[in-house]
Amino acid sequence: MRSTEAYVRALPKAELHLHIEGTLEPELAFRLAQKHGVALPYDSVAQLRAAYDFTDLQSFLTLYYALADVLQDADDFYELALSYLQRAHEQGVVHAEIFFDPQTHTARGVAFGAVVEGLSRALAEAERRFGMTYRLIACILRHLSAAEAMDTLHEVLEYREIIGAVGLDSSEVGHPPSKFAEVFEHARRKGLLTVAHAGEEGPPDYIYEALDLLAVERIDHGVRCEEDPALMQRLVREQVALTVCPLSNVKLRVFDDIEQHNLKRLLEAGLRVTVNSDDPAYFGGYLLENYLAVERALGLTRPQLATLARNSIEGSFLDADAKRRWIEAIDACASEAASG
Ligand code: HPA
Ligand code: ZN
Q1: Smallest CA separation from ligand 1 atom 2, residue
Q2: What is the CATH architecture of 4-339?
């Protein structure tokens, strides 16, 4: 029987919760800092890595936004994204729905078009070289105003052929989904799909708001749904995908340790749970490491690992035909493992 690692790697998987800025490895950060003459407040890669000791979401975001300063031209975004896509491909990711934060870059004077150009060049190359498919999701920074979000949406709409959806991220508590109801309504009217971070640090009410006021297709994180049994029942009934990020949740202290993570309980309650890496350069692992961490800590079975992979395909924005083909491939992988 092959190892669990080989099994998970072989399962075709979609990654649905991945911030491209969160794939900035310290080595690349230093190289780009040198390229652009940006001073980083750290002397070495080791010193920077040592700063990845977060106490909550905000402590992470502060460092994450500061390091994003090194991303300045289209080539930087191309290199960032291609490194991620190469790694994801090696881990059996066949489809990636990638977040980026336009406001983090436009606020520094980086053109929206440069960000999109670099990212789409990498995505097209990954499609050509690895057969990977993708969607691009522009996230609204929720700590900024609804008016600024609307301005950003107008820029997003200029790249309507490349950007398929809008999301909502950054500091959650105090910035409920309701703040952006109008912006998301406009996005949907223009044909964009919507997703939102909710129930990571924020309460179950934020998950209701994301569903009812933003009409999201899925919930990013959503782990705090467990505090509300009626919400759990609804998520099961409507089969809303949750894009859960186990290593992120431990690094940002949503759970004290990986053994306390509720992923297995949510899965066994019938929710459409998926596994994702969020900001892998900061949280200690890419998609494969996230699967293996929960497998080991929570004792997931191989059929449960296959269910997580199936959920990632079902919860994606792929069309019905592509979904059917990947589900068949996952079924084949799972039955080969069961018989061998
Ligand atoms: N939550 C909110 N905003 C983010 C995250 C997250 O986990 N990662 C990057 N931006
Ligand atoms: Zn996230």
Answers
A1: 170
A2: Alpha-Beta Barrel (3.20)
